[in-house]
């Protein structure tokens, strides 16, 4: 009985730790985006009339959005119910 409780506790702890790491990574990515993109826009504004800074802003911005969706557990394509159903399915196969 103790072993089962310990395994469950370790699993929950690891899952919570992974979630915190994902959120921490998201905020780091967001902070870097908010620092680098304005610098690129400033360089772009002062060097050429072609708005090339929009490309990294859009590309990286999409990445930041996807990272945030993952970190906070929102997945419009494969929701939580789908994930739990698949986990149960694969556990039954074993």
TrEMBL record:
It holds the Pfam family 2TM. InterPro entries: 2TM_dom. The chain crosses the membrane at residues 26-45, 57-78. The keyword Transmembrane helix applies. The keyword Zinc-finger does not apply. Residues 14-92 form the 2TM domain. Keywords: Kinase, Membrane, Transferase, Transmembrane, Transmembrane helix. Signal peptide: none annotated. One of its GO terms (molecular function) is kinase activity. This is Histidine kinase.
């Amino acid at each position: 009985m103790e072993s089962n409780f310990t395994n469950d506790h370790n699993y929950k702890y690891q899952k919570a730790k992974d979630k915190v790491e994902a959120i921490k990574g998201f905020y780091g990515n967001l902070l870097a985006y908010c620092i680098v993109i304005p610098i690129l826009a400033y360089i772009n504004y002062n060097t050429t009339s072609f708005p090339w800074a929009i490309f990294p802003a859009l590309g990286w911005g999409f990445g930041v959005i996807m990272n945030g969706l993952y970190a906070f557990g929102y997945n419009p394509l494969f929701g939580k119910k789908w994930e739990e159903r698949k986990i149960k399915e694969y556990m039954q196969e074993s």
